[in-house]
Amino acid sequence: YKTFLATTGAAHPPVKEKREMTTDTGADDRRGSPGGCPPAAACCETATATLPVKVVDATGLQCPGPIMRLKAELAELRAGQALAIDVSDPAFGNDVSAWCHSTGHELLGIQRWNGTVRATVLKREARLAEVSGPASVTKGKTIVVFSDDFDRAMAAFIIANGAAAMGSKPTLFFTFWGLNVLRRPEAVKVKKTVVERMFGWMMPRGAGKLKLSKMHMGGMGTAMMQGIMKRKNVASLPELIESAKKAGVRLVACSMSMDLMGIKKEELIEGVEEGGVAMYLDQAEAGNVNLFI
Predict the structure, then answer these.
(1) What is the band of 49 on the pLDDT scale with cuts at 50, 70, 90?
(2) What sections of 193-254 are H helices per DSSP?
């Protein structure tokens, strides 16, 4: 165990009691050695075979940040190399286990101490997607974004970023009120009818102007929620949109809804495609998850 810690360059986690540090091995074994260190076999049995080449500090990041960071860091390693990542999100143990199961990488072990979760992951060669149906079925995910509520838009982009980090190819299809999520924050000079201009005045212009579905309270509730998110280090909605675009998430605006609501292509943010129901259904049929938000 000491050799493992010395190799990774990590300090021995300060443990006041044995029960404060455990290692996920399928059973709850707290028969630690003196000083609170877990049994050597439980702590290092798999880790000593392939020592991590780096330790990544992802503490403070909220979901889906840790998984996105893990994917980015692992991409820099060669197959057969491992890394350890420290996360303060208590649910990360379950998340990293699911991520490894989905991507084919190997989870060597999980340690916990004083609110920190350390996962050691071994990079494996990229594997072909395992499908149980027609060969055309992939790991694609489709999300219909119908609402322009702030919290619902947040949920859509958190799921999309998480899916991209797990190797999927998500497509978000924005229709009716959901189109407001994609509007530019600044006014754009385009030719419109009087009715179309009225629609534009009454609808929120972009991700920064959305309201909570509940407890908006004239803007005070939404401002409070955004303030809490900032203090908790949760990515803002504009940041999630940008990270989704960089990860290859497709953003598709329903052309019929755009025409109906008087929203022009020039009024949408960069990177948005126009499409219709056939485009959405084609993506949905080729994927294995479809959500309506």
Answers:
(1) low
(2) 194-202, 220-231, 237-246
Just list the catalytic residues: 63
Which helix H or strand E contains 288, and what residues bound it? strand 287-292
Q: Is the peptide bond before 64 cis (omega within 30 degrees of 0)?
A: yes
Instruction: Give the closest residue to 168 by CA, choosing from 229, 105, 248.
Output: 248
What pTM was estimated for this model as a whole? 0.73
Cβ-Cβ contacts under 8 Å for 107 (sequence gap 6 or more): 96, 97, 100, 119, 120, 121, 122
pLDDT in tens, 124-150: 986 543 433 444 446 789 999 999 999
Q: Are 225 and 246 in contact (CB under 8 A)?
A: no
Bridge partners for 143 per DSSP: 172, 291
Residue 40: how many other CB atoms lie within 10 Å: 14
Phi/psi of residue 232, nearest 5 degrees? -90, 5
Query: Between the CA of residue 96 and those of 14, 51, 118, 119, 133, what are the distances in Å?
Result: 24, 18, 10, 8, 27
